[in-house]
Amino acid sequence: MPGTLKLYTCSLDEGGPKLHPCRKAHEALDEAGHSYTAEVFDKNRPMGLFTKGKRPQLEEMTGQEKLPVLELPDGEFVTGSGDIVDWAKSNAPASG
After folding, report:
1. pLDDT (tens digit, 9 = 90+) per residue, 27-80?
2. Residue 65, Cβ neighbours under 10 Å: how many?
3. Is the backbone peptide bond immediately before 17 cis, with ω within 30 degrees of 0?
4. Rounded (5°) CA angle 65-1-64
């Protein structure tokens, strides 16, 4: 898939606990061989606690306020670690 994937995460990013959604999204993209950029979207709420109404820019972009979010090159979004994991596996780049 041409273009750049962009993964939006909380401040724990890929260094959080093994079960943290942002880390799981990073691991799935890495394991599937995707090239992507990462951006820490919210530095003040690393576990997503008390975020209701606190991420208006993310809600405007995606329709929801939870991280992680994967932005595809066509401007579409994949939200939530489970959906990002599924997308990463089913859209793995061809090995060359």
Report:
1. 999 999 999 999 988 666 555 555 565 677 888 999 888 899 999 999 999 999
2. 20
3. no
4. 10
d(CA 72, CA 49): 26
Strand 5-10 and strand 36-42: the pairing is parallel
Q: In this structure, what token pair is assigned to residue 37?
A: 């950029």
Q: What is the CATH number of the domain that holds 34?
A: 3.40.30.10
Largest Cα span, the chain: 44
Which value, in Å, is the radius of gyration of the alpha carbons in the chain?
Answer: 13
User: Is 13 exposed, middle or buried, given 0-12, 13-18 or 19+ CB atoms closer than 10 A?
Assistant: buried
Q: Which domain holds residue 42?
A: 13-90
Is the per-residue pLDDT at 4 higher than 70? yes
